[in-house]
Amino acid sequence: MNQHFLHHNGSQDENTETIARLNIMGVGVVNARAETAVATIDDEIGRGHRVKLAFLNAHGSNIAARDHDFRSCLNRFMVLNDGIGVDIAARILFGRRFNANLNGTDFVPRYLSTSRHRFRIFLLGGRPGIAERAAAAMKLRDWPHDVVGFHHGYFAPADIPAVLQTVRASGADLLLVALGNPDQEKFVEQHFSAFNCELAICVGALFDFLAGVVPRAPRVMRRAGLEWLFRLILEPARLWRRYLLGNLVFLARLARARFAGSTKGERFPPSTPGLEPGNLASRG
């Protein structure tokens, strides 16, 4: 019911850990602890691979169900699980929970604080002024990285070549993209080769949180998997369709998948998703 796709060779010991992808209704999602995911990304970059990272929650799963191009795009990323919805799906479809909730709002800061690599970071996305504020907030963190540029996400298709040139000129090797689902993943997929970055991460609302314009849910709600409810309370007019109707749609799709058994025989490619070879020297 799952596909083993990668062996992580820990740099601190000789143990080899196998990381599995669970098929969450057509999207392969990595099942790993946070520290293993961090080490896996670092190891692949160290081998000279270029990594595309995304996150799947119930909302993204619903979009992937009706947008075949988005679903195919995600399966060319390394995808981590985000939130209680996909955790419920894992329990119902496979009889097991994910090893950890690796939502982007928590995982990306964790990755930046524990990665053994030092990055030059460019922030792309959000409303005008938000990426700039998020970049300023990142510079205050005790992280061994340099923020080398930022650009808002309100650009027209005709502006894309100029945006790509700005990213390249910054010398960034890590690109954080906050354009919302499915635009951010499709943007990275289409233009990844032009970024000249080692790592691109689709981060959703992370810039809003870093900039302080959207508060995080209380820790007790986050631990209970109820951060979505906190966001709904804050922005009911904008989010009621996503969370109230969307969650019902997700659960209905999950029930159909469970009783149809449609995911049990599906296999994913044995190669590591989200990796591309590049003209990059291996990093230690």
Automatic annotation (TrEMBL):
It comes from the Bacteria. Keywords: Glycosyltransferase, Transferase. The keyword Transferase applies. Signal peptide: none annotated. InterPro entries: WecG_TagA_CpsF (IPR004629). One of its GO terms (molecular function) is hexosyltransferase activity. Residues 263-284 are annotated as: Disordered. PANTHER family: PTHR34136, UDP-N-ACETYL-D-MANNOSAMINURONIC ACID TRANSFERASE. This is Glycosyl transferase. It comes from Candidatus Raskinella chloraquaticus. The lineage of its organism: Bacteria, Pseudomonadati, Pseudomonadota, Alphaproteobacteria, Hyphomicrobiales.
